[in-house]
Amino acid sequence: MGVKSGHERDRKQHAVACHCGSVRFRVRLADEFNTIRRCSCSYCRMRGAIAVSAQLADIEFDQGEDNLTLYQFNTGTAKHYFCKTCGIYTHHQRRSNPSQFGINVACIEGVSPFDFAAVEVIDGVSHPSDSGSSPRVAGVLRFEPTA
Questions:
Q1: What percentage of residues in the chain have a pLDDT greater than 70?
Q2: Which terminal Cβ of the chain has fewer Cβ within 10 Å, N or C?
Q3: Closest by alpha carbon to 95, among 58, 66, 135?
C-alpha cells in the first residue's frame, strides 16, 4: 500500500462493522460527517440508511470482505454491499461518484443515525447522472427527540 501523506494520516480512521460483526473494516471519511445524506431513489427509500462519503482507497478490510454480497440494479453502476450473515448494508460504490463509497453511518462504531438532527435527502429519482445536472436536495429528514 504505499506511504500515507501527512494529510491522510491526520484524518481519523473509523471502525465499521455489520450487525453480527462478520464484516469489519476501517475507513477515513472524505469530509468527516459533513457529507451525510439520504437518497430518494426507489432502492434507497426502501433501504432507509444515512450514508457518508469516503474515497475508494480509504477503506481497509479487517475481516469478512468475502462475506459480503453485492446488489446492483438499473444502470448497474452503483454497487451495494451487504453482510451475507445478518443482511446489513455496510457500504456502496456511488453511482453519482464511482470514485467514492457511501458508508452506512449506523455501521460506524459510536455513531447512530439519530445523532443528526437534520439530514438532507438528495433527489435520486431525478438522478444527476441521468439529468446531467448537479445533485438536487429533495427535502430534509429531521429527528427531534421527545425526551
A1: 88
A2: C
A3: 135
SS (H, E, C) the chain: CCCCCHHHHHCCEEEEECCCCCCEEEEECCECECCCEEECCHHHHHHCCCEEEEEHHHEEEEECHHHEEEECCCCCCCEEEEECCCCCEEEEECCCCCCEEEEEHHHECCCCHHHCCEEEEECCCCCHHHHCCCCCEEEEEECCCCC
Cell, residue 144: 427531534
The identity of residue 30, as a single letter, is A
At 65-123, the pLDDT tens digits run 999 999 999 888 899 999 999 999 999 999 888 999 999 999 999 999 999 999 999 88
